[in-house]
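Need tokens for this chain, all 155 residues.
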Amino acid sequence: MESSNGKPQKATYVMDTDEIKEYLPHRYPFLLVDRILEIEPGKRALGLKAVTINEEFFNGHFPGKAIMPGVLLIEAMAQVGGIMMLSMPEHRGKLAYLAGIENCKFRAPVGPGDVLITECTLVRTRGNMGKVHAEGRVDNQLVVEVDIMFALVAR
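Here are the structure tokens for all 155 residues:
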């Protein structure tokens, strides 16, 4: 991409929701990642989820003091990790099933108006299994961290 002065311009993200849907089978309301900001296949991924008051779950989750449910925070983070795992050439075209969760810590609530930035780093892969460490931040503050295991299976 070039700017008006002819110099290269850095893209603000590497995948939008249409491209994310090529990797994940999730659709509204369960697609919980809006953009992939950075990706190093098989190593690391950075994803973004803009949390808005229009999210369906806010209708019934702590009305008057809306917070994003913890299980949905983990799911949003798992989707970023799944994209990172599926971006590896040997796993392209597969599905990433959530196989396990370890060492989960919720450190602060996430609510309407927040932007959740998830960084997933590969811990290990063995055959069709993988494990990532995920950290979620809002305004650069760590709000949740978790180790997520995946089973990578044929579609």
